Amino acid sequence: MRLRSMHTALLVGLLLVGLAGLSSAFAAEIIIGGTCDRTGPTKLVGTIICPGVLDYVKLVNKKGGVHGNTIRYIEVEHAYKVDRGVEAYERLKREGAVALVDYGTPIVYALTPRHLEDKILGITPGFGRADATDGERFPYIFPAAATYWSQMGAAMQFLKDKGAKKGSKIAYIYYDNPAGREPLPIFERICSLEGYQCRTFAVPPPGVEMASQVLDIVRRFRADWVVSHLFGKSPSISIREFRKNGYRLDHVVSLVWGAGEHDMIAAGWDTAQGYLGMHFAGVGRDFPIVQEIMQMYRDEGQEVPEMVGTVYYNRGILNGALLVEAVRLAIEKYGMPVTGEKVKNGFEQIQNFSLGGFLPPLTFSAKDHEGGGWVRLYQTKGEQLVPYTDWFRGYRDIVWDEIRKAGKTAMK
Predict the structure, then answer these.
(1) For 12, which of 1, 292, 305, 331 is 20 to 30 Å away at the CA?
(2) What are the residues whose beta carbons fall under 8 Å from the beta carbon of 55, sequence distance 6 or more?
(3) How would you class 238 by CB atoms within 10 Å of its CB: exposed for 0-12, middle for 13-18, buried for 19 or more?
(4) pLDDT tens-place string over residues 159-191
(5) Phi then psi for 269, rounded to 5 degrees?
(6) What is the pLDDT of residues 230-263, one digit of tens each?
(7) What's the pTM?
(8) What structural domains and CATH numbers belong to the chain?
């Protein structure tokens, strides 16, 4: 009997070793990728947001990957140029990437047909084409955070909640490119609905000259409120111009790409006091996921970079986290090997994803690829960006009506 027991134990041991080897043999390297502007007009964003993605993926791999599979993230720099963005996409496709972080609204428009044809998922958090919220029309494009339409809806809701009424004067100052023009339909509809007096003020690229626009807003139009949609070097210039003209910065509401710490530094923290900026991820270091990344640096004997916890770095974490979560669900629900189609289906299974309070509760479906359209305002106080509102959204009926309208127009 003892000999039989030893024989049985030996067989069980060999079986376990075999299963372990089998599991190891099936462990894979899953490739995701992204484009980035580290040298072009939005490098002030790219050089901060892109490291956030890389650090999040590194943390995931240090913790064992996704169900034992290593995530390999490939970044390609494109300098915010459409032709280079297309080249970068094709390179990532050749490398076998199953999901991508796209970067730049003009580039998103150029890449959309390729994503749909190749069945490679692309996320465009906080930028890109707002009508891609419609997952049935754009199955492989995920705005994955508040689009420009939702940002404008939220901004206008905030102004209404703050007392804007019929006859109130509202200015929209924007960078004159596809990204800057994207929110115009929502702005114009809400202005008409509420009876506001509204005017738009375009700032031509590269966005470093806007003294005349700000003077018009403050002295001639005499705006009660300003909604600002500037990026790159433009936000800091606008802050200085509004301050110089005596305009209250707590009556300027910036959409999401005009309110990073570097904008305050370039304008001067003292100059930027009171400025209101919109965000779709938490700001600061007081979040479990940010603390984990900081500890990862310390464990490696490195100093924690100053950028960790800043606005755009944290958005990089969001980008990486959403792709990794979609991969995780793809493996759990659809098995290996991971494909673009499985990741897309996994993304549509994400429910109430907040990353420990770092994000609003994001929920996706086959119909809704935006996740809810939530934002939060922060205000410049001292040398910090402090929460000014909780997560909120606005005019969802108008936003979704525009999404449906875009679909009908495309079918004609």
Answers:
(1) 331
(2) 293, 296, 308, 316, 317, 320
(3) buried
(4) 999 999 999 999 999 999 999 999 999 999 999
(5) -55, -40
(6) 998 999 999 999 999 999 999 999 999 999 999 9
(7) 0.90
(8) 27-147+284-377 (3.40.50.2300), 149-281+378-411 (3.40.50.2300)
